[in-house]
Amino acid sequence: MSGDDQSWSIDLKPRNFISKIFENITISGDEFIRSMVLNETSKDVTRYEFFDIKAGF
To answer: What is the pLDDT of residue 42?
Structure first.
């Protein structure tokens, strides 16, 4: 995990059966999660970006 008060990022490396599908998963954000990148063992990459996030229930 890296970052500061304004932004952060964490790189997750699976160690079980999920490692056959994903090399790593990177999640980053600030007050909220802003993006998630899934790097697959097949070299495909899926990126999710989150916009217009509102806090509350």
So the answer is: 98
